[in-house]
Structures are given as structure tokens and as C-alpha cells.
Design a protein that fits this description.
The complex is a heterodimer of chains A (about 425) and B (about 280). Chain A is of the alpha/beta class and about 425 residues long. Helix content of chain A is about 45%, strand content about 15%. Classes of the chains: A alpha/beta (about 425), B mainly alpha (about 280).
Chain lengths: ~425, ~280
């Protein structure tokens, strides 16, 4: 499939490049290699509108899901290389820093609401975050009410466990389960090996007062086990079947009202409310409680792994055109509205328009209540290989929940972290 | 005729040669060069000499050797099974039975489906079966992954090999078979002493195809098991892919590239050995 998609993609790029060749060269042009397939149509429309208004050519190409790195690697070699691309955090930046233009002093950087949304190396600003996202446990309030509870009853891991286990005990009578299946298929196990794994890492970083480490201790892995146990043993399917379940299966179960809880993020808002499946009254997102830290003050997991970088090797005119385009996107009414309303993004820029996304609003509400969002620490995970190792071990543990199998998870988590960090130069 | 050919040969050779150069020779040489470099992108490659090759044997977190064993075990069984079953089908379908054409088409059809699609379809089928019998599913079951791959490859390739064998069997001269019959040979004797020696050319081609396909297998491997559990079902090509993409950093690309070159040499050596061995048994009509 990769090869085929690749071929198709190359043909498209070739076609685009042929047409692009006719454009005016002097003004500079923008080529954005987009990471998020969900937002491709919106980017295309925005690019078109910008071209109509300014005459500057903007090409947006979206890489197939999961193929961004490979696509970028090939594209950046070309004569018409992307002028704008993205990295997913410090580990991703390490690969691409030779190509990143220093954005300090650019309008884009100055528009950021907080310096913490930039990716720096020394004094150079190499990446600027453009979207803030949240994830947690998406809850079907209607079903929860049927089971006799409300989201206000869930304020800690103990509450969550009580509610989930009660629903499981009565699932035959209620007709639904507590959690949608924790699909461990390779296409979607990132929900657990990356997003859920962020929590023990976050609490460890908090306890130790650090932001990254080369040797994780795994202090909070028992909490990780507790929440994972809760997911897999109070689910729509037997734990042994999880290895073949996908994220789509999980979402469909939630959409069909087979489960109350579904761990995922604000990006799911569109697909959960599409065609009137659910309204804002049905849904809520609650923090992922694991029994660690101060649960009364725990908010949603909020952060970013999407940073814009400008290609240093592009011609000066192209770099300038790209910076102008980005400035327009984050400051103009049209750009900010498109990002908030059409793409559903919360953007960390001064002129941001409020997003209609319910989960985003909830994140703001939690913060207003004085809760602290859990930051995204998975950009500090050493490699894809580390995630795969943890994912594999989790899958084995889900099928057979013995202490020995959990020890394998701990080993993949702690020792794997160390080994993989040693492999980074 | 020859004069015309002499005059116009570039017309025939140049397009193919150009395509071959652009699509094969240049990338191959570039790949060879990159195996001596550390690189993220081809433009910014840094020469490191033989470092990558040394690391392949000393300091590789996913040694090729780990995947070699699984690949060989897979190759041996699948080559034998695919050729045996393909040949048996060919024998049956050259007897002039009713519906021969229909069966030939049906058996050939799996070949028209892409490897990744087949991989996912069989993943669903095999997982369905495993969950009914209460065994661990594919992602946790090396044995099921191994046999799943073999079943999948047999299903896909038997039809193709069958067509080649049918063509071979049909080209065995009637006169030879008739002469054997008159001399009193049984049908088994005819098969062993006349037909098989006469179709050794087909055997050479089929074994070559199945051998190289087995060693180079990638799509099906990635779709069906993706190396799970814990890389025990990772074959050579997937191993190289993982080295290349699973970590960020220039050193992994170079290492992956060096492994790819070694892999290429290995496949060429093995298939040359096979060609020599089976060619020797071919007979001229």
C-alpha cells in the first residue's frame, strides 16, 4: 500500500509541479507540506483564497496519514521543495534542524501568545506551534445518566473505577459497556502507547521537576497499569480480542451507543457530531484520572506536537512569501476564522478566534476552574521504536494480564527508554 | 532486414535503456553511495566510509540475522508448497476436463489483488479463526503469523506458477508422449521420465520467481503481522524498513541503506546459485 500510495502521490506532485512551473517566479511562492489529512480541504480553500487576493501562489500538499516523514524526506530533495513543513517536537526537530529557518523576529513568532509554544535551539526559533489540542476521556452523558451517574460524580480515579465497574456489572441489563474497545491494532495503539503513556511520564516529570530525561524511572507505572486494566476489563469486548481492534472500531462503538467512555482528543469532535450523531448536550470530556498527583486539580491533557518550520534552503523570495502567508493566516480575519471554525483548531496566536469545538471549550472551562492541564510530554519519547516496544508489550499484557507480562511492559518502558536514548547521537 | 536493424537499433534500444538507467541503474548506484554515508536527505549526505557496514555486524539493534532465520524458514516451505501445488493444478487442468478455463482463471485471480489488500483480508480471516478456537490472535502468535504468511503467499502465487507450468506442459510434444505410451510406459513413468524433464525450463522460472519473491517479501509481511509479536515475524525487507524509519537521526538511514545493499547481494547470490543448479537439469528439445 505504501508503495502504491507513494506512486500516486508522486504522480500528483509531478502534475502540481508542472503546473506550478508556469507561475511567476520573482514574487516567491509557498509550498506547504501539510501533516493533518483531516484538514486538507480547508487548507486548500485557504490557499486558493490567498492566491486570489495577493497573486502569490500557494500549493498545499497533504501527506498520507502516517507517511509524513517519508514524504518530507523525498519532497525536500526536489528543486521545488516545500517551503513550509512541520516537525512533531524536539525529537523530530533533531532530524530536520539543518533545514529550519530561524523564525526569531518574524511576525509569526511575535504573534505567539506564549514563548512556550516555540521550539528553540539556543537563541534560534526553529519551530512555531500552530495548534493546541486536548485529549481525555470522551463521555456519553446520556448513557451515563441512564446508568444513574453524571460527569460530576467522576472526580478521581476511584470514582471512575467505581462507575466503570458498576456499569460492567450491569452491562447486560443496561445494554452498553463502560469503555469502547482499547484497540491495540498497530494503526491505532498510539492512543495507549503514546497518549495514555504520557500520564505516567508527566507525573514523573512533575515530581522530579524536569521537562525531559534520558532515563525514565517509571515511578507512576502502577497507575498506568491501573487505568489500562480499567479500560480493558470494562470494555465492549474480551481483552484477548483487543490486539485486532482498531481506533475506528472503537469510535464506531461509541457512536452506536455501545460504550460510555472513549479515550481520544478534541480532533474527534467533528466525527462525533457529524450528521447529528451527537450534540454538545450528549458529550463531555473528562480528565484521565490515574490516581496520581492532585486529582482535584487535574485538567485535560493539553498541548501540541505540531510545529511549523520554514525551509532554510528555499530561495529568499520563497521564504519571504512563506512568512507573509503565515502572517496572513494567523492575523487576518479570514485566516483565523478558517482555523477556528472550519479546521476546529485552537491556535496559540494573539488574534485567535474562539473555536466552536466543545472539548476545547471544556478545556478552557477546566483551566478557568483552576485546574492544571496535563502537558504533552510524548514529543520527548525517544523514538518510534520505543513506542512500538511498549505497544507490543501492552498488547501481550491485555491478552494475558499476568504480573510477568506487566513486567515486560515496565521493561519496555524503562529499559527501552534508556536504550533508545543511548542510540540517539 | 538486418540492415534495417543495424540502422534503427537505437530506436529500439534507447527508450528501454533510458528507462532502465533512470529507474534502476542510477538509483542503484546512488543507493550504493548512500550506504557509505549518514544522511537524512540525499543532498546532505555525509561520507563515513565503511562505518555503516561495520555497524551492521557489530552494533545494530535489529540484526539482519534475526530476520534471516525466519525468512529462510518461510522461503523453504513456501517455495516447495507453491511449486508443488501449482504443478499439481497444472497437471489437473491440462487434462481437458470440463470447466478447465474457468478454473484456470479462478486460480489465477488472487494474483491480481495487491499484497497489502490481501494481507489485511487474511488478517481478518485468520484472526476470526483464531478467536473462534481460542488461540492468541496474530499480533501475539508467532506460529500463526508464520503459517498465515505461507497460506497467504500460496493463495496468491499458486495460480501464477500454475499458468507457467501449464504453458510448459502444453509445449511437451505429443509425439514423445505417444511414443512413451506405445513403449508401454505407465502414466506415472510418463510424468517422471518425459514430462518433468521436458518442463525443467518452467521449473527454473517458477523456482526463481518464488525464491526471489519469498526473500523480498514486504507488503504482505507488513500488512499481515508487521513483525509482531516483538519482531519475531519480521522478514529481511521489513527489518530494513524498520531500521530506516523507526528512529530519527542520520545514522539510521545509512545503516538501513547498508543493510539493503547486503540484502541485495544476498538475494543475487542465492538466486544465481539456484539458476545454475536448475539450468543444469534442463534438456533441449
Amino acid at each position: 500500500m505504501k508503495k502504491r500510495l507513494w506512486a500516486l502521490f508522486m504522480v500528483c506532485v509531478l502534475a502540481v509541479a508542472c503546473f506550478a512551473g508556469c507561475g511567476a517566479k520573482d514574487e516567491g511562492k509557498v509550498y506547504y507540506l501539510n501533516f493533518k489529512p483531516e484538514q486538507d480541504p480547508q487548507w486548500q480553500a485557504l490557499a486558493k483564497s490567498y492566491t486570489e487576493q495577493t497573486g502569490v501562489e500557494v500549493t498545499v500538499v497533504t501527506a498520507a496519514s502516517g507517511e509524513y516523514e517519508t514524504t518530507l524526506q523525498a519532497e525536500i530533495e526536489k528543486a521545488d521543495a516545500p517551503t513550509l513543513f512541520q516537525v512533531n517536537g524536539p525529537v523530530g526537530l533533531a532530524n530536520w534542524k539543518d533545514y529550519c529557518y530561524d523564525l526569531s523576529g518574524s511576525a509569526l513568532y511575535n504573534e505567539l501568545t506564549s514563548d512556550s509554544f516555540s521550539l528553540k535551539e539556543g537563541n534560534e526559533v526553529l519551530g512555531v506551534a500552530y495548534v493546541i489540542e486536548s485529549y481525555g476521556i470522551i463521555t456519553n452523558k446520556t448513557l451515563l445518566a441512564k446508568a444513574g451517574y453524571s460527569v460530576d460524580d467522576i472526580k478521581s480515579f476511584a470514582d471512575l473505577k467505581k462507575v466503570a465497574e458498576d456499569i460492567t456489572a450491569r452491562s447486560a441489563e443496561l445494554g452498553f459497556s463502560a469503555f469502547s474497545s482499547a484497540g491495540m491494532d498497530g494503526s491505532s495503539d498510539w492512543r495507549f502507547k503514546t497518549h495514555l503513556a504520557n500520564l505516567p511520564i508527566y507525573f514523573e516529570y512533575q515530581a522530579d521537576g524536569i521537562g525531559t530525561t534520558k532515563a525514565i524511572k517509571g515511578t507512576y507505572l502502577d497507575n498506568y497499569r491501573a487505568i489500562f486494566d480499567l479500560y480493558i476489563n470494562n470494555s465492549t469486548c474480551a481483552p484477548a480480542e483487543l490486539s485486532a481492534k482498531t481506533g475506528d472500531d472503537s469510535r464506531n462503538e461509541f457512536l452506536q451507543g455501545k460504550a460510555v467512555f472513549f479515550q481520544n482528543g478534541s480532533w474527534e469532535y467533528g466525527s462525533l457530531t457529524a450528521d447529528g450523531a451527537y450534540t454538545d448536550d450528549d458529550l463531555a470530556m473528562i480528565p484521565i484520572y490515574t490516581g496520581a498527583g492532585d486529582e482535584a486539580k487535574q485538567g485535560l491533557c493539553t498541548g501540541t506536537e505540531n510545529y511549523w518550520c520554514v525551509n532554510k534552503d528555499a530561495s529568499e523570495a520563497d521564504i519571504q512569501a512563506t512568512l507573509d502567508f503565515l502572517e496572513w493566516v494567523v492575523t487576518s480575519e479570514e485566516g483565523t476564522k478558517c482555523m477556528a471554525n472550519d479546521m476546529g483548531f485552537v491556535i496559540p496566536f494573539k488574534n485567535a478566534v474562539e473555536s466552536p469545538n466543545l472539548f476545547v471549550k471544556q478545556d478552557n472551562a477546566y483551566t478557568a476552574e483552576g485546574k492544571t492541564p496535563v502537558s504533552w510530554n510524548f514529543p520527548t519519547m525517544p523514538s518510534e521504536n520505543w513506542k512500538n516496544g511498549v505497544g507490543s508489550a501492552l498488547t501481550a499484557y491485555a491478552a494475558d494480564q499476568t504480573d510477568a507480562n506487566w513486567d515486560a511492559v515496565v521493561k519496555a518502558f524503562v529499559e527501552g527508554w534508556k536504550t533508545e536514548y543511548e542510540l540517539i547521537k | 532486414m538486418e540492415k534495417v536493424l543495424k540502422k534503427y537499433w537505437p530506436l529500439f534500444v534507447v527508450p528501454t535503456m533510458a528507462a532502465f538507467t533512470i529507474g534502476f541503474i542510477v538509483p542503484f548506484l546512488q543507493g550504493l553511495y548512500l550506504s557509505f554515508c549518514e544522511f537524512t536527505t540525499i543532498k546532505k549526505a555525509k561520507w563515513v566510509g565503511f562505518d555503516n557496514y561495520i555497524r551492521v555486524f557489530t552494533d545494530d539493534p535489529e540484526p539482519l540475522m534475526d530476520s534471516l532465520g525466519f525468512t529462510v524458514a518461510f522461503a523453504v516451505v513456501s517455495i516447495v508448497l507453491i511449486n508443488l501445488i501449482g504443478f499439481l493444478f497444472a497437471l489437473v487442468l491440462t487434462r481437458g476436463l470440463k470447466g478447465t478455463n474457468l478454473f484456470r482463471t479462478v486460480f489465477f485471480m488472487p494474483n491480481l489483488i495487491g499484497g497489502v489488500v490481501l494481507g489485511y483480508i487474511w488478517q481478518i480471516l485468520i484472526n476470526g479463526l483464531l478467536s473462534v478456537v481460542g488461540e492468541p490472535l496474530l499480533a501475539l502468535n508467532t506460529t500463526a503469523g508464520y503459517w498465515g504468511l505461507i497460506i497467504l503467499m500460496c493463495w496468491q502465487q499458486v495460480g501464477y506458477m500454475m499458468i507457467i507450468y501449464i504453458a510448459g506442459l502444453q509445449s511437451v510434444p505429443e509425439s514423445l508422449i505417444e511414443a512413451a505410451k506405445i513403449d508401454g510406459a505407465t502414466s506415472l513413468q510418463t510424468l517422471l521420465k518425459i514430462k518433468i524433464p521436458m518442463i525443467m525450463q518452467s521449473v527454473t522460472i517458477c523456482v526463481f520467481l518464488t525464491l526471489t519473491n519469498s526473500f523480498k517479501l514486504f507488503d504482505q509481511n507488513m500488512a499481515l503481522t508487521n513483525g509482531e509479536p516483538m519482531n519475531t515475524t519480521t522478514m529481511l525487507a521489513l527489518n530494513i524498513y524498520k531500521t530506516f524509519y523507526n528512529r530519527t537521526g542520520a545514522q539510521w538511514k545509512g545503516l538501513g541503506q547498508a543493510k539493503a545493499v547486503i540484502f541485495c547481494i544476498l538475494v543475487v547470490l542465492i538466486s544465481f546459485g539456484q539458476l545454475r543448479a536448475t539450468r543444469g537439469k534442463e534438456v533441449q528439445q
